[in-house]
Every structure is written in structure tokens, then in C-alpha cells.
Amino acid sequence: MAVIHPKLEQGSSARVTNIDRGIFEGGAQGAAATVSVLFPLPLPKAYDYLSPGALAPGTFVRAPLGPREAVGVVWPSPPDGASPEKLKPLAEVINAPPLSPAVVDFIQWTADYTMFPLGAILRMVLRANDALETPRMQTAFVAAGAAPSRMTPQRKAVLDIADDRPQTAAALAAAAGVSDAVVRGLADAGALRRVEIDPDPPFAPPDLDRPGRDLTDDQAFAADEIAALIARRAHKAILIDGVTGSGKTEVYFEAAAAALRQDPAGQALILLPEIALTLPFLARVEERFGAPPAPWHSELTAAQRRRTWRRVAEGQARLVVGARSALFLPFADLKLIIVDEEHDNAYKQEEGVIYHARDLAVARGARGGFPVVLASATPSLETVVNVDEGRYEAVGLSSRFADAALPDIELVDMREDAAEAGKWLSPKLVAAINEKLVLREQSLLFLNRRGYAPLTLCRRCGHKMTAPGSDTMLVEHRFEQRLVCHHTGFSMPKPSACPQCNAVDSLTPCGPGVERVAEEARERWPEARIAVLSSDTAPGPRSMREVLDAMKNGAVDILIATQVAAKGHHFPNLTLVGVVDADLGLAGGDLRAAERTYQLLSQVTGRAGRAEKPGRALLQTYQPRAAVLEALASGDRDAFLAAEAEGRKTLGFPPYGRLAAVTLKSRDEAALEASARAMRALAPNADGVEILGPARTPIYRLRGVARQRMLVKARRNVNLQAFLADWLARVKKSSAVRITVDINPYNFL
Ligand code: ADP
């Protein structure tokens, strides 16, 4: 149950009396007021209730909703105009810090921008279910300084560990290797003292005076520019553009320190694209600020989530490191956001409310009136254009710290330097790895494909194994002996006969995944220490960490990995990166395919030679003339970006135009087609708007649900959301066909 403050009782006209008037606006003995309450449910608007006094927007309340009561937030929307007699009274006002005006404003903005219901955005803020409840005090134990009358080895083990820091019975017992009962027995015997502790202990404050590293001239210049921006106390986005290893992280740590120093109650948020990166990153923050930051990501336990949420809402947690959803934490006084690897597509959330965390971070900064720092070695075209057109500022770090050289990148034309039949590594790449093995240096083979083979085909009848009700290929995972769909999660044991023609042993794996390249590597280099890393081979950030640590410590000679190894890791003895299939990302051909390929491949090749030894990268390709690969080989990023920009400009695609995807989904294909056609016909006429489609999505059916899509392309001066709202209002809603809108889509599958 939530803390009720004040207690509400049945009473006179408003049926809510005996209230501590202090919590109402103006503290007045004022008349009953109508307040709007938004619930964290997919509802588009707030509902009116009767309150004994005015309440500030952002205040948490509990109010009757249908047959139940639900937690909601007082919302600054104008009353519906219903007469007060018809309104239900609030049930209680919750004693928790209200959402700050900037957070309320940000929720409203996000709903307007993404076109998802307001309540669905609020639900993203209320992600720690019990954070609004009174924390139940926990019993902990400290040493009492007295010995028990009877000593046993178990008791001694506990007393050796116990000190004046309160620890729970479970924690003490686990550390001493005894049962909880031993701990309680010691407390009963007077050797330990029971104390009550908050289950959500405060976070240790970051030590802002702890000296950071001595910055190089470049780094110091960049840090000063950002500090000047922070001192202006105004919103502006600034890009730190610097190759991997140039010290972007060191520079933005100084920015965080400057912002927190300037506002003693202020908070800073560092966003990272991947949780696999957060664990080592938390340690790095701790090293810089003498205390770990408040973490926020999907691997936290419920208790850890509640602790971060509560402490962020109180303003106690000053430095937060999190994944994209951390943007929706209820910051009391956020003063700076840093978006590391700003170009990373992991910032785009595709499930539930569809949003791009980098774009929302900039919007959040605009709402809160503070700067937003974007960092990347391969900034997105969107950000580069924002810099070029003067909307964002930029600082550059041109070289790697301590003169570590950038790797020498070479294309391997697979038409001329072909791998043997049934093999995937060209003679040139094999020779390069041989050399590294002799030198006792490490190699990374990169292939962004999980499993053994991406396609399983019947040699007899040509049948392709697909997931049930889906147009997705089943990927063989040989280690588990299963066929797996990476889109739906469906999996099955690999059948011994073709389900179509019943031919036995005819199902053949086609093409390589990391497991298959590992098989080849083990055959070629039986003596080498080989490890495979992908989200399947190491499920969960901890087991991934183990492989990454082994690589870092030199316990692996050849690492074969998907993109999980591409980002942010520092392997001092890695000097060769082989990209098994550099063409892979170009195949789908969506508007960002080349840009994504550039980012991913320059990131992965950037793993080579980060320390004192120079690195080398070999990119295996069948299209050595592709502009993006030529740009990678010549290191001419700016020319590549200029050509990309030109292409997008010609086509009127983002960032030179606006784009939205309207996707219709249904189990009933006939109804789907009819609805898509009917919807298309209802589109309003508008200048500067073009509608492409409807057309089947490239993966047409997923789990029995078929999908049709329209792309809406508009000139930059068009209010795309208003156009879409007008259009959607004309469409008859049907339960058989679901419509979703994705503003600025990244996923076209
Ligand atoms: P980026 O974020 O650009 O990839 P980092 O900030 O991670 O680069 O720096 C790369 C490595 O160089 C890190 O180990 C970092 O601690 C070290 N480094 C960068 N700048 C300095 C500096 N001025 N003094 C000491 N070490 C530094």
C-alpha cells in the first residue's frame, strides 16, 4: 500500500476531509477543485476527479478507475467541463516527490511526437511498481563487540565478518558459509545487534573533486567547450566526434563533473546503447568519481530498480548510467544527458512505444533547458547534418590517445581470393591469422550472424525451413542441435527428414554463422585457443563478460564474434580483425544500410591495435567497388557521409525530409489488404506529402500475423504528426486490423 499522506476520511461535501491542507497548492483552506489524473495505461487522455484542494501537476494520487483504484499522476490538462457533482473524489494523495514539470512536459511531448497514447508514455515512467510504496524497513546486523557465551566454528565465521556496517542475515550467512539461523542466534546471544535499515540505501555521492586524468590538449579543448556550454545553463546539443580510443569518455566525464559541480542538487545521465557494456562502464565511473553510479537497465532485480527509481526521484542519485529507458526515470533535477555511441541503432526502441532515445534525449534537454552531449566515432548522418546546419555544436578529437594508430584496412576481393568450397576464410585472411598466431597476438573474426547456418534447405525438393506462420528462415544452431527463428523465438530440434518430401538426411545448412566459422577455425588451427561470442553462446551480460575478459587477458587467440564484441571493448593484444562477410549489412538495402555498414565495420575494425601495437583489418567482400567499403579502406569518412547525404537529399529522406511508417497487422489477410487499400484511399490531400504503398512488409507474416505497410514521406516543413492524426481520425477502427505508427522508422522488415 502506498504511503497515504494525508489520511483521507469519509467526510462532508467532497467526501475527503481532514486533510493536511499544506500539501495543496497555496496551502489554502480552499474550495474543492477539479483535477485531471493521467493513468499509466494506454489511454490518450487524463480524467477528472474531485480533490479537496488544487494539486500541483506531477503529484502522485490514487483514484477510482472502473471497479478498482489505480495510481495516477495529476496532469496539467484543462478540465473536461463535467459538473463537479458527477465527479468521483480522489482516494488518496501519495506522499512521494511529484514528477518535475520538465518530466511532465517531456511525457506530453513524447506522446505528441511518437503518436502513442499519453498514458502509455507515463507507463514507461512508472516502471518500478513498488517505488511509490512505503519502503518496509529491513533488519540488519552489526557487531555488538561482545563474545557469545558459547562459541562454535560457525559463529566464529560470522563474527569474523561482522563489523559496524549493517548487513542482512542472508548476506552475513552467505559470506560466512553458514545458515541464517546462526546469525540470528548470535543476535539473541548479544554478540550481534539488530538495526533497522532502509532497503533502498542511498547512493554514495560522486566525488567531483577527485582529479580526472590529465587531458591532452585536444581533450582539454573539447572539455572546455562543453564546460562553457554547461555554464550557459541553456539547451544545446553538442557532438564529441572522435575515433575510438581518442578519449571521448574521459572528456564527457569532465562534462558530467562540471554539470554536477555547477548545480549541487543537479543530476546527470549517461546513456549507453548496450547493457553488456554497462558492467565494465560502471567500474570505470567508479574509478573516476570514487563511487558507482545509479544503474538502470533490464538486468536489474526488482529491488535494484526500486532503489534507483526512488533515489532518482528524490534527487539523491546524482549520476545515473543506463540504457535507453533511463530517459524515462523521474529525475528531480536533470541537468545533463550524455548519449554515448549516439549513432547506435540499439537506441531505437521497436517494441511497445516506438522511439529513438537519442532524439528523445535532445528533446528532454530542450524541455529541461540543459545541454545534451552526443559522442561517437561514426556519428549518424542525422547528427552530422544537424552540426553542418548549425543546430548542434561539435568538438573533434582527431587522434587516438597515446598515439595508438588506427588500423590499416584492406579489402579482400573474394572473387579473386576465393575461399575453398565449403569454407569461408580466404587464403589471405588465413595467412594473416597464421602470422598473428606466430607473433602470439590476437585475432578477431567478425560475422554478424548468430548460429551455424542462416538457411536450412532440402537438397531433394528445395524446401526452406521457416518458422510456423512466419516468413522467416530457421537458423541452425548446431551446438544446441536446434533450428531457431531469430525473429519470433520459435525453435525446434533439427528434423532428420525434410518435412515437405520426407527425404532422409537431405536438410543442408547453407551459408555461415559464427558457429560454422568457428568450426572452420578449429579445423585449421587445432592448437589455437578459440572462443565464440554471440548472444546465444553467452546468454546474459555476465557470461558475455567472462568471454570478453578472457579475450582481454590474452586467454584467447582467435575470437569469433557477432556485433556483441564490436562495441566499446578494449583488447590490448588484438591486432587483426577479419570481417568474414563485409557485404552482409548491405543486402537489405534500406535507407540506412550503407551508413550502418560503415558504422559497424569501422567500429569492429577499430578493435584492432588499440594499445601500442599497430592493427590490421581485412574485409572480405564480393563488391570491392561499393562506395561504403572503399570509404572504409581509404578512411575517408567525410566523403562517404557527403555522398550519403546527397543521396538522401535527392530522395527527400531523413534528415532532409520526414518519414513515417504506418503498418497494418492482421491474422486475416483478406481483411488486411482491404483495410490497407481503404486506408490509403482516405489519406488527406496535403502539399509536400507523398504516400508509398501499401505493400507487404519484406517479412510478410510473423507468428501468423500478416503485415502491410505504407511509408509517408513529407517535406521537412510539414507537420507530419498532424497529417497522420487527421488521416487516422478518418479511418474506421477495427479489432481485426491493428495500426501502428513509427515516426522516423529504422526497421523496414
Ligand atoms: P573513447 O571513448 O573515445 O573510445 P576512451 O575515453 O575510452 O576513448 O579512451 C581510450 C583509452 O585511453 C582509455 O583506456 C582511457 O582511459 C585512455 N585515455 C584517454 N585519454 C586519456 C588521458 N588523457 N590520460 C590517460 N588515459 C587516457
Summarize the structure in words.
This protein is an alpha/beta fold. It folds into 5 domains: 15-125, PriA, 3(prime) DNA-binding domain (GIY-YIG endonuclease, 3-Layer(aba) Sandwich); 138-197; 217-402, P-loop containing nucleotide triphosphate hydrolases (Rossmann fold, 3-Layer(aba) Sandwich), CATH 3.40.50; 404-449 and 512-644, Rossmann fold (3-Layer(aba) Sandwich); 657-743, Alpha-Beta Plaits (2-Layer Sandwich), CATH 3.30.70. It contains 19 helices and 31 strands. A 7-stranded parallel beta sheet has the order 10-11-9-12-15-8-16, sandwiched between helices. α1 (101-114) crosses α2 (118-125), α4 (169-176) packs across α5 and α15 (593-605) runs parallel beside α16 (627-634). The model is unreliable at 1-22 (pLDDT under 50). Residues 213-216, 219, 242, 244-250, 401, 570 line the site of adenosine-5'-diphosphate.
Helix/strand structural class: alpha/beta
Which molecules are bound besides the chains?
Answer: adenosine-5'-diphosphate
Integer count of domains: 5
Strand content: 15-25%
CATH superfamily of the largest domain: P-loop containing nucleotide triphosphate hydrolases
Beta strand count: 31
Residue share in helices?
25-40%
Given as residue ranges, the uncertain stretches (5+ residues, pLDDT < 50) are 1-22
- How large is the count of helical segments? 19
Walk across the major sheet and give the strand order.
Answer: 10-11-9-12-15-8-16
Largest sheet: 7 strands, parallel
Q: In the CATH hierarchy, what is the class of the largest domain?
A: Alpha Beta
Radius of gyration: 29 Å
